[in-house]
Amino acid sequence: VQLQAFGGGLVQAGGSLRLSCAASGRPFSSHTMNWFRQAPGKEREFVAAIRWSSSSTYYADSVKGRFTISRGDARNTRYLQMNNLRPEDTAVYYCAFGNGWPQVRNPYWGQGTQVTVSS
Asked: Strand, helix or coil at 32?
């Protein structure tokens, strides 16, 4: 499975962005997709999870109510809608795919996309 994440950018605080993660290859229906993020000088942080074949979702407390992970029209693409962004959301965002719930274990990783939120 190969993952490609895109959709990052620069936005003002309070704004919105939508990240996409496209999976190629043969993702298993029993697997999970995660979004993680890593800010400079900080450890990687779990953000959200969605079961590949269902609508089950899970969020870190820091983004609950602001971020939404979802399936879309494209069969092998999942999205992270980020609303009411804060400067502390600034990070490189990575999608990951594999076994486990809510956090995947030994996942395939996408290449990361930069999200910068200005105050």
From this structure: strand
